[in-house]
Amino acid sequence: MAITHLKLSCPDRVGLLAALSGFMARFGGNLVEVHQFTDNLHRWFFTRMEIESLQVDLETLRAAFEPLAKELGAEWTLRSAEARRKMIVLVSKQGHCLADLLWRWRSGELACDIPCVISNHEDYRAFVEREGLEFRHIPIDSKDKAAGFEQMAAIFREQSPDLVVLARYMQVLPAAFCAEFHGKILNIHHSFLPSFVGANPYQRAYERGVKLIGATCHYATAELDAGPIIDQEVTRIEHFHSPDDLVRIGRDCERLALARGVRWSLSDRVLLYGNRAVVFRH
Amino acid sequence: MAITHLKLSCPDRVGLLAALSGFMARFGGNLVEVHQFTDNLHRWFFTRMEIESLQVDLETLRAAFEPLAKELGAEWTLRSAEARRKMIVLVSKQGHCLADLLWRWRSGELACDIPCVISNHEDYRAFVEREGLEFRHIPIDSKDKAAGFEQMAAIFREQSPDLVVLARYMQVLPAAFCAEFHGKILNIHHSFLPSFVGANPYQRAYERGVKLIGATCHYATAELDAGPIIDQEVTRIEHFHSPDDLVRIGRDCERLALARGVRWSLSDRVLLYGNRAVVFRH
Amino acid sequence: MAITHLKLSCPDRVGLLAALSGFMARFGGNLVEVHQFTDNLHRWFFTRMEIESLQVDLETLRAAFEPLAKELGAEWTLRSAEARRKMIVLVSKQGHCLADLLWRWRSGELACDIPCVISNHEDYRAFVEREGLEFRHIPIDSKDKAAGFEQMAAIFREQSPDLVVLARYMQVLPAAFCAEFHGKILNIHHSFLPSFVGANPYQRAYERGVKLIGATCHYATAELDAGPIIDQEVTRIEHFHSPDDLVRIGRDCERLALARGVRWSLSDRVLLYGNRAVVFRH
Amino acid sequence: MAITHLKLSCPDRVGLLAALSGFMARFGGNLVEVHQFTDNLHRWFFTRMEIESLQVDLETLRAAFEPLAKELGAEWTLRSAEARRKMIVLVSKQGHCLADLLWRWRSGELACDIPCVISNHEDYRAFVEREGLEFRHIPIDSKDKAAGFEQMAAIFREQSPDLVVLARYMQVLPAAFCAEFHGKILNIHHSFLPSFVGANPYQRAYERGVKLIGATCHYATAELDAGPIIDQEVTRIEHFHSPDDLVRIGRDCERLALARGVRWSLSDRVLLYGNRAVVFRH
Questions:
Q1: What residues of D act catalytically?
Q2: What residues of C are in contact with residue A100 (Cβ under 8 Å)?
């Protein structure tokens, strides 16, 4: 049966859930999954609803919802669960996250279309193309980085992806680029943030002598590795693990944290506000 | 500000959440935390709401709610968050769970009154009494177990505790006893259920050579270690850990799983149905 | 620099480590990693050594070691770390473990050769062949299972693999088959053993209402899912996860537990005794 | 049977383990547990041995070992496992770690004597004294911190504790104090280091929006929260957890990480070198 997703945030007030669930009920909607969260500090309300058995089409529903949302001062989306999301993946020379995402996509875990995979290197062309996907090589010239990112932005503007995934894409994105695609770019950082922001986190984790390493899936913002965190994963290490061991072991953390972040983002489970993320996990 | 908890389950149908949240809104109630779950297999609906700023007292609210609940065919409770729950703790000769619960209780993590601690042994009398709590010694005679449990049941009937916690209480409860206090008796079993039901789970875990051990917090039913599971906790072990090591390491799993189960039960976060538990965690 | 692995178990007695490390020192061997474990209950000694800078070749070393090992009543192997292990992978219709293993193998995490991948179905032929590996389809006829397993045994006898990995191979192996290849066949079971031995563990985990699910990597023996456990992995689930969700979430546990078990087996880190496994993890 | 612990580190060279295990064998010593680690980067060797059935007393053994240790350029200790360690605990106004340690000590998990508990506040006097332990109140005057620490140092000099545990002791130690008792002072920091060094880590974790919080057990050095890490523990949090929730949930991480760190330190399982810790876990 067709499922519709409502994702909404607005200032808190009495009767919000009643208004929203009442609205859906008037159109025959049955709420099969509802999440609600109120940030008491900022008096802000967040919800996600999965609605089935609606008696109207999505366009009609959206039009009917518009005045209510306006009155509430809400940010919101209403989408069909079945509508395919569009995801573009960026990769550099470490392919484990790319491989993991493509396997999950192929096996049906990630419901989306992938218009292309973009890389600043040629290493994964064959790997991507044998999946029947388009591979775009966009070199980033260290003397003129803007050119490469402008080329990339043009693709994004044309494709309007729901999600851009930095699957160990090792270039710092220009601030304007982050701003233009704000809330669309999901990164996996290979440390337990805010520990080890920036380059070589495994080497630095080794030097600090930590006993757990991790990975962080977060939305990219202009400030490096400082955007809203969606998920984190850690694993125990010991004194006998070399920096190379950390790189190897950490890959499993990266894969898991990124895959969950992608899945939740694609299924309308992530709401950003300020530098925090509400994640209605499943 | 006063907070009220609604806990409710009923057959699923369109408009349930609208009806419930609308009801609360009519009494000025603001929903600060809402959990909802629909079991699609059984078409059954579960919710828990934290409601503030209600303009009526609890008795009036309950009376007004009664007809709606009846119409929905609902099981429900409406309770003040501030009303103190009553918890009775049972212990035998292993005191780590008792000590942990009393520490959490003393420090304010567990909002409840403890009318007494009951044991089939005298070991923890001084420990309990120095906390200013009543200690009741009820021996269980192996030739006439019924007598001890009848004495205990009398206390329960008099005290009407919201929760009875078996904090490593090492006697099997009679079936009639479980039936009478169904949904009130929380047990901690020192294995990862359904592995190692019954006696000596750590020894058996050692013999099986498992690489993780755990503990399970569940509601007691007539069938041993088979009641609805609230929480489980595991920890990694290795070949060099002896059965005694497992006992020692496992204690931390037991403490954590039991403490969470108690906390969630006391704060109206657990709904039992059949042999499953909906746990609206926090 | 060349590294040699000694793996040895024998009855415990005074001076064992001195004898073994002294032996290696006489040949110029430097011990870069040593693990030792004594099972005090059975007075049995286990060790694994990584030795570098040996001044003799492996054949000479083995010949010199033979009399000492005999005197100790030891089971042992001495192998070059660089010598490629041979691993055969078996798969049925669930390909996630196969895909994970091949990715790790391709990326250098698993140092071995893979003479072939065997399946009772044709589903993964293309997937395997595009990795440049041989795919062998050996159907298992439900009316004459012995024929298929005899064909498989012939391959094993010819190839002498160090390890046979059941990567979600969904056929029960005949007892004689398990006996012939004892200590060579590594299985991944999709539950936290000994919970849910046998078929449909996720469905049964759902029905029992557990709050953690897991996977177990163990050596196959004649008794189903009862062989020595190498590693286990768990992950938290909640009441809202359907049996299908458990299948999806559990795949990550399976991948991780199997990959570690394979890696440790290939690098001579697993010593079986009775139904237990000493795993000198790294 | 009497057990002796050897803890030793020295420059790596061929034959080290042979020399050490040979030495013990000459005195009839049976090695019941041996750990060895070689840091290949710095060519440094670390070992810990549990030795039983030695035919000489500890003084004789130490005297015999002295020349060998000197030749190896080793740092080492040889101690009887049965000899009681001395541990002094420091606490301020958060008592959960203190309570946890005292419970474990009382139940036999931590084999040590506790000459006194020291606090800059009076809050836990009754709690400590009812355990039969001495409570010392040493106020830290914000205008003359040196005076309080000098008083404390005098106690340490008199008592020569093997371990001083900062069980949520909320004063920064003077550098000279850290230097004098280097390698003796174990701290629990309430964050996953190196994230959130310094004050209010839970509040800052909340503001950063992390999805896991943790605690770190480390040796105190002059630089705040930068000493060698012994153990870390994390737990998952969600968007709905307030800073107060993090404080509550984090306490369990603190208790576990500190208890393990104390246990390993007391049983000669921790070897510090530079800013790293070799921890031969059990």
A1: 225
A2: 103
In DSSP notation, A49-102 reads EEEE--SS-HHHHHHHHHHHHHHHT-EEEEEETTSPEEEEEEE-S--HHHHHHH
Give D211 to chain C, closest Cα distance, Å: 15
Smallest Cα distance from D176 to chain C, Å: 37
- The Cα D282–Cα D270 span in angstroms is 11
How many angstroms away from the CA of B1 is the closest CA of chain D? 17
Alpha-carbon torsion angle C38, C39, C45, C46, nearest 10 = -80
Q: Do B34 and A36 make contact, defined as CB atoms within 8 angstroms? A: yes
Amino acid C1: pLDDT: 66
Superfamily of chain region B3-80: ACT domain (3.30.70.260)
pTM: 0.97
- For C85-279, the fitting CATH number among 2.40.10.10, 3.30.200.20, 3.40.50.170, 3.40.50.2020 is 3.40.50.170
What is the domain partition of chain B in residue ranges? 3-80, 85-279
| Separation in Å, CA A251 to CA A98, A235, C256 | 11, 10, 11
* A99-157: pLDDT as tens digits: 999 999 999 999 999 999 999 999 999 999 999 999 999 999 999 999 999 999 999 99
Distance CA(C119)–CA(C166), nearest Å, equals 10
Nearest to D109 among B241, B248, B256 (CB): B248
Residue of C33, C36, C37 with shortest CB distance to D38: C33
Q: What contacts D159, CB < 8 A, 6 or more positions away?
A: D86, D88, D115, D116
Determine if the peptide bond prior to C11 is cis (ω within 30°).
Answer: no
C123 lies within 8 A of chain A by CB: no
Choice among C100, C162, C225, C268 that is catalytic: C225
Q: CB atoms < 10 A from the CB of B148, how many?
A: 17
Residue A225 designated active-site: yes
The predicted pLDDT at position C223 comes to 92
Options A100, A225, A231, A268, the catalytic residue: A225
Judged by a CB distance cut-off of 8 A, whether residue D100 touches chain A is: no
Residue A15 contacts B, CB cutoff 8 Å: yes
Q: Model confidence over A222-238: pLDDT tens digits?
A: 999 999 999 999 999 99
